[in-house]
């Protein structure tokens, strides 16, 4: 009932963490105006400090040494990643190489596997980058002209759980009573359940989840349907899945090497924290890597 069935093949410790994190009594906070305000504020601060930030640069190669040289290519466009944030412009020209005294690498571990690293990382780091289990996630979004879930079913925010393929349906937790309709997350699933949607086209994900909603709330909802879209994070080369989720044995076998620096290359990102799959974990890892340096 907590969207944890698809997580049930994980290591016991990870399952306990997941159960605590997704306790129905847990309070979650969001940022009014959108979560991207958080990185945007960091970006503004960095600009004020004169720190150069380059967007659309894909790291492809690391030449390690007292100074490590990072090689970049132009970012590969992804269907889901084509929109740049407010005020964020593409760089005028690709900055192909950067030589650095210290490097903090925060890309997902599976994405790091295609990096050309010379000399190679230590065997146990390579094993960790190779084996650390990442789960997938898929979300399908349906826009409706009116908020039938509120007006007809008295649902204000929260989720519906079903054994239909959609599984977990989330309703907007803002703009209650709004007259401009709203967007329902008609399916938000992880791991094996998310992997299933990967095989489907965007169009059929929308179609199947709209059918599920019609089964639950009645055929009449189709009249108010406007448009739908979806995102499967396993299909995205920049995320390569939802998040690290430690499989059985991985706490014992790999955890010691997840955070381990390789000379002047430090590993950040939520996967290297104790709050895997949370923004809080990415911040925790950011503080740890800063302290390491
Ligand atoms: C579906 C979903 C729902 C979530 N819900 C929540 C939630 O409700 N609350 C919460 O706290 N957390 C949630 N999370 C988790 C949260 O998004 C992560 O914990 C957080 O984004 C991790 O930050 P990060 O900087 O470690 O990694 P990321 O945000 O993944 O950043 C990694 C960056 O590296 C870039 N990158 C990848 N490869 C390269 C390369 N070769 N060169 C250059 N750049 C590269 C990527 O483009 C990306 O910008 C959710 C995640 C998903 C997928």
Explain briefly what this protein structure is.
InterPro entries: Amino_oxidase (IPR002937), FAD/NAD-bd_sf (IPR036188), Flavin_monoamine_oxidase (IPR050281). This is Tryptophan 2-monooxygenase. The chain is an alpha+beta fold and 293 residues long.
Describe the structure.
By secondary structure, the protein is an alpha+beta fold. The chain folds into two domains: 51-133 and 246-292, FAD/NAD(P)-binding domain (3-Layer(bba) Sandwich), CATH 3.50.50.60; 135-235, Polyamine Oxidase, Chain A, domain 2. The protein has ten helices and 13 strands. It has helices at 12-21, 37-48, 109-112, 123-131, 148-151, 191-198, 202-217, 250-253, 255-258, 279-292; strands spanning 57-63, 68-74, 97-100, 103-105, 116-118, 134-135, 137-144, 159-161, 168-170, 182-190, 225-232, 243-244, 265-267. The chain has a four-stranded mixed beta sheet, with no helix packed on it. A three-stranded antiparallel beta sheet has the order 10-7-11. Strands 4-13 form a two-stranded parallel ribbon. The chain is globular and about 65 Å long. The structure holds flavin-adenine dinucleotide (FAD).
- Which regions are unreliable across 5 or more consecutive residues at pLDDT < 50? 79-89
Bound molecules: flavin-adenine dinucleotide
Helix content: 25-40%
Tell me the distance between the termini: 43 Å
Pathway: Plant hormone metabolism; auxin biosynthesis
Organism: Hymenobacter negativus
Catalytic activity: L-tryptophan + O2 = indole-3-acetamide + CO2 + H2O
Enzyme class: oxidoreductase
């Amino acid at each position: 009932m907590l969207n944890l069935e698809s997580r049930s093949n994980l290591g016991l410790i990870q399952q306990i963490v997941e159960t605590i994190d997704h306790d129905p009594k847990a309070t979650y906070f969001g940022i009014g105006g959108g979560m991207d305000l958080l990185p945007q504020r960091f970006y503004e601060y960095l600009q004020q400090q004169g720190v150069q930030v380059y967007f659309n640069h894909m790291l492809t190669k690391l030449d390690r040494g007292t100074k490590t040289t990072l090689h970049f290519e132009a970012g590969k466009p992804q269907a889901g990643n084509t929109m740049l944030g407010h005020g964020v412009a593409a760089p005028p020209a690709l900055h192909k190489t950067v030589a650095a005294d210290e490097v903090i690498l925060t890309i997902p571990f599976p994405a790091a596997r295609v990096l050309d690293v010379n000399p190679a990382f230590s065997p146990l780091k390579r094993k960790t980058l190779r084996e650390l289990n990442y789960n997938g996630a898929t979300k399908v979004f349906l826009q409706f002209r009116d908020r039938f879930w509120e007006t007809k079913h008295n649902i204000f925010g929260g989720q519906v759980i079903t054994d239909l393929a959609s599984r977990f349906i989330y309703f907007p937790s803002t703009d209650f009573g709004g007259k401009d309709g709203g967007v329902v997350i008609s399916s938000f699933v992880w791991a094996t359940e998310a992997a299933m949607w990967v095989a489907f086209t965007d169009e059929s994900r929308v179609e199947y989840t709209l059918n599920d909603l019609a089964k639950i709330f009645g055929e009449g909802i189709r009249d108010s349907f406007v448009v739908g879209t979806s995102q499967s994070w396993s299909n995205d080369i920049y995320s390569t899945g939802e998040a690290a989720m430690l499989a059985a044995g991985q706490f014992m076998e790999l955890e010691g090497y997840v955070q381990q620096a390789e000379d002047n290359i430090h590993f950040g990102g939520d996967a290297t924290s104790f709050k895997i799959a949370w923004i809080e974990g990415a911040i925790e890892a950011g503080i740890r890597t800063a302290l390491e340096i």
